[in-house]
């Protein structure tokens, strides 16, 4: 069986941290990071607000990301091999040989319709505004945030896409990013294991 798990949510919600723990624990598990599909910097438009529009869907090559997901679906073993992932089961559970899991991690996962129905489970990590801003201020992205980006672009775009997701009633499991890394890991691992049981 093949399962696709979405680890979505706001910037600095803790998606990458959680994902890195999960891939170590799950059998035959591959990962796709949405950030790897950013268009080249010179193709990121400057908005009316004067900021480069890093936090809009158009800045990502979502077709390329979709094709990567489809490549995994078509042949998870080959995908794992070509991405340097050890495909031997790292779990002692019986049957894990037939279980293939793909984790897709990113901040705008559920705003791209063509992929929406492919997820077996969609998680959504959030933290309050102040905590998000605090965590973001200590991060350094490939392109550093210019002054004012968080309040002028990042947060308004989060609110816009979040509203759309809520209005479209996208079925997500909300996760409280203020919980400890261990607690989140235990909660999601258990929930994924239940999802595997229920889907099989
Ligand atoms: N549960 C947690 N509690 C406290 N801090 C956390 C937790 N999870 C992650 N962090 C910290 O928050 C910051 C952001 O974490 P992480 O990179 O996992 O977020 P992200 O959602 O992947 O962000 P982005 O999408 O912007 O790359 C990091 O400094 C990380 O160490
Ligand atoms: N990965 C990048 O190239 C990049 C460059 C500039 C800004 N970002 C930020 O990454 C977050 C998503 O993980 C978004 O909030 C972007 O602002 C990423």
TrEMBL record:
Biological process (GO), any one: NADP+ biosynthetic process
Pfam families membership: AAA_18 (PF13238)
Record's catalysed reaction(s): beta-nicotinamide D-riboside + ATP = beta-nicotinamide D-ribonucleotide + ADP + H(+); beta-D-ribosylnicotinate + ATP = nicotinate beta-D-ribonucleotide + ADP + H(+)
Any one GO molecular function term: metal ion binding
Signal sequence, renumbered to the chain: none
Keyword annotations: ATP-binding, Kinase, Magnesium, Metal-binding, Nucleotide-binding, Pyridine nucleotide biosynthesis, Transferase
One GO cellular component, as annotated: nucleoplasm
Pathway where it operates: Cofactor biosynthesis; NAD(+) biosynthesis
PANTHER family named in the record: URIDINE KINASE (PTHR10285)
Family to which this protein belongs: Belongs to the uridine kinase family. NRK subfamily.
Protein name: Nicotinamide riboside kinase 2
């Amino acid at each position: 069986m093949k399962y696709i798990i979405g680890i979505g949510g706001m910037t600095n919600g803790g998606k990458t941290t959680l994902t890195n723990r999960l891939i170590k624990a799950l059998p035959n598990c591959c990962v796709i990071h949405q950030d790897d599909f950013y268009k080249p910097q010179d193709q990121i438009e400057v908005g009316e607000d004067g900021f480069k529009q890093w936090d809009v869907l158009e800045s990502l090559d979502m077709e390329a990301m979709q094709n990567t997901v489809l490549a995994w679906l078509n042949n998870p073993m080959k995908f794992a091999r070509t991405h340097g992932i050890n495909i031997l089961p790292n779990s002692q559970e019986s049957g894990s040989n037939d279980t293939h899991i793909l984790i897709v991690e990113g901040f705008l996962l559920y705003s791209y319709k063509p992929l929406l129905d492919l997820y077996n489970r969609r998680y959504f990590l959030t933290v309050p505004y102040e905590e998000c801003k605090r965590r973001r201020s200590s991060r350094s992205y490939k392109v550093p945030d210019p002054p004012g980006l968080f309040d002028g672009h990042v947060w308004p775009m989060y609110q816009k896409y979040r509203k759309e997701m809520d209005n479209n009633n996208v079925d997500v499991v909300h996760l409280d990013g203020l919980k400890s890394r261990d607690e989140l890991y235990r909660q999601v691992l258990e929930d994924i294991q239940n999802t595997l049981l229920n889907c099989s």
